[in-house]
Specification:
alpha/beta; three-stranded parallel beta sheet; 14 strands; nine-stranded mixed beta sheet; 387 residues; 10 helices
């Protein structure tokens, strides 16, 4: 409910499949109106923008039907083919139109993530590994996240953040997916759904990016005790750079080799806690033989809860920062330049689709009527529809 803390943003209505639950939520958060259907909410003339946090498989349909600004929960849609429809529509601001659709990858908007990006050197990354674990029991096995017909799966949930981190660190798209493996749901559940996913990609500079994501991660030791406990590991993103070598200025025939590693702990919720480790490992060795004479390392530990160039204060969550940029874009203010444009969202879904294919799994399905896209294109071409 970050909108409640943002001056100029009023949350005026909510809609849900379960009317009783919607009314309870509205009462708890002082939301004045509860609509009986999603369409009724979209038809409300007092609403300028919506937050579409429906199951993944419904993102496409209800974003195209909205005809309003949309903060669109990640992943933006079910697959890359769907992504090209909303993000290539002429009404979107990034394509010269008048409506905003933001793929809500909230982690990108926090100062900690932006600081992390300044510490890495994309062309010289040798290896990047992104880890994330969700403890067992946080999501029920029959949760909507684990339904194929609603475009579910680990890679479509926590795994999508991991893919984001790779793309942003390397600053480009991969040239190929070199490996992908999935651990499927237990046999009594949907066998088209990945409960955990690991994958590796080669990027244009030759570096390798790898993700490990698990939506039901239990401890590894003493299974009888730890199967229902969260793993004693913190989510992290580790980027190791290629070795740089310079001749030692005072020791002829010797050289110093330096490897830089940058680690961001807790990418997903940095407003609660995070740490960035900046590690430089040095080796003094013979230029001719490579014989090592000395090894040492230097480590700096950084925190970055706020940044004047981004705005806000240390209490702001990733969602609050994201909302600020969404509103700035709608109101035509420049903001600090942190954004997720349409092409970025399309490339994200292409990478997810490719990973599923590499793992021998089906791409998440499209369930919206095919004619919806063409109907939306027709309305978008009508000048009377422009606001």
């Amino acid at each position: 409910m970050g909108g409640l803390s943002r001056k100029g943003v009023i949350i005026v209505a909510i809609a849900a499949r379960d009317g009783d639950r919607a009314r309870a939520y509205a009462k708890k958060h002082d939301i004045p109106n509860v609509h009986s259907s999603y369409q009724a909410l979209l038809d409300d003339p007092t609403i300028d923008a919506i937050y579409n946090l429906l199951p993944n498989g419904l993102h496409y349909e209800w974003t195209l039907k909205a005809h309003k600004h949309v903060l669109l929960e990640k992943p933006s849609v079910s697959n890359a083919s769907e992504a090209r429809a909303p993000f290539h529509n002429p009404l979107l601001l990034q394509n010269g139109g008048s409506l905003i659709v933001l793929d809500a990858v909230h982690i990108r908007f926090h100062p900690a993530w932006q600081k992390f990006l300044t510490l890495i050197d994309p062309p010289n990354i040798a290896e990047a590994i992104s880890y994330s674990w969700v403890p067992p029991g946080l999501f029920a096995q029959d949760d909507i996240r684990f339904r194929y017909d609603l475009a579910g799966g680990c890679l479509m949930d926590v795994g999508s953040y991991k893919i984001q981190t790779l793309r942003l660190a390397f600053g480009c798209e991969p040239t190929e997916c070199i490996s992908a493996t999935a651990r499927l749901m237990p046999e009594e559940f949907d066998q088209d759904i990945d409960q955990a996913f690991s994958g590796s990609w080669r990027f244009p500079n030759g570096g390798i990016g790898t993700i490990h994501a698990d939506s039901q991660a239990a401890g590894k030791n003493l299974p009888w005790l730890t199967n229902y406990l969260p793993p004693l590991r913190s989510p992290k993103f580790e980027v190791r750079h290629r070795e740089t070598v310079v001749p030692h200025p005072d020791m002829p025939g010797m050289e110093t080799a330096t490897t830089k590693t940058v680690v961001c702990w807790d990418v997903l919720a940095p407003s609660f806690w995070h740490r960035i480790d900046f590690i430089e490992s040095h080796v003094l060795r013979s230029t001719a033989t490579g014989q090592v004479q000395k090894k040492w390392s230097n480590t700096r530990y950084l925190k970055h809860y706020s940044d004047d160039s981004i705005g806000g204060d240390a209490s702001w969550t990733t969602y609050r920062h994201q909302l600020e940029q969404f509103v700035d874009k709608i109101q035509g203010r420049p903001g600090p330049g942190v954004w997720v444009d349409g092409e970025d969202s399309i490339r994200q879904m292409e990478m997810i689709d490719g990973a599923y294919q590499k793992a021998g799994m089906r791409i998440r399905p499209s369930i919206a009527p095919a004619e919806l896209y063409w109907s939306f294109r027709s309305k978008a071409s009508d000048e009377s529809f422009h606001r």
